[in-house]
Amino acid sequence: MTIPSAEDHRVGRSNWLRAAVLGANDGIISTASLIVGVASASSTHTEIITAGIAGMIAGAMSMAAGEYVSVSSQTDIEQADIARETRELKEDWDFEVEELAQIYMARGLEQKLAREVALQLMKKDALGAHARDELGISELTTPRPVQAALASAAAFSIGAIFPILTTIIASIQFLVPIMFVATLFFLAALGCTGARAGGANMFNATIRVAFWGALAMTVTAGVGEIIGKAI
């Protein structure tokens, strides 16, 4: 009998893919918006590029710190649940067997079979069975704070590079419209890439990121122009 090969499920990519797409998206939008805002205030080419680079560095550090803290909080919650489940397994084994059996019965197994499955799984790895089927914690979804932080910082920096390069290449007289067009292109490419990696609808992802990017740049350009005229 031929043993089927393991399937490549995309849910295992959810943690790093979410952090990477969020970081790159934020890097493109925030840096482009900052550049458009500064450019609308009639600054020099050097000042605009300097602002963009400073924004990239600050944004990457902020993304890494924020991602690490938020994912670490999720890890702490999961570890607390695991510790509680460990105590309960030591204190009342029979109750935990019945609890797991009830979960399987709710999924469609008959009572006798559900109890037998619970017993067999708990003999092999009681904590693993309860973590997976009672708490919804598995290796695929376990948060990794350092990985998420590094992915966010790197992705933000990569995303921010494109608006900065556009600023360096483009003429300052036409920087704002060029930045609008270039950023929408970068966001569309990011949306397609993220959707393809995650197996999602590419059209919806592209429209979503492009819309919010355009909105962010429009608001920032308006604020920059108002402040530039007022100062």
What would your notes on this structure say?
The chain has 231 residues and is an all-alpha fold. The protein has one domain. Helices cover 82% and strands 0% of the residues. It has helices spanning 14-40, 45-91, 93-106, 111-133, 145-169, 175-198, 202-230. The longest helix has 47 residues, at 45-91. It starts with 13 loop residues before the first helix and ends with a helix. Mean pLDDT is 78; it is low at 1-13.
Keywords, please?
single chain; mainly alpha; elongated; 7 helices; disordered N terminus; 231 residues
* Helix/strand/pairing category: mainly alpha
Please provide the count of β strands. Answer: 0
Total of domains: 1
Mean of pLDDT: 78
* Shape, per Cα inertia axes: elongated
Strand content: under 5%
Distance between the termini: 78 Å
* Largest sheet geometry: none
Low-confidence stretches at least 5 residues in length (pLDDT < 50)? 1-13
Along the chain, the helix and strand elements come as HHHHHHH
Helices, by number, come to: 7
Radius of gyration: 25 Å
Percentage of residues in helical conformation: over 70%
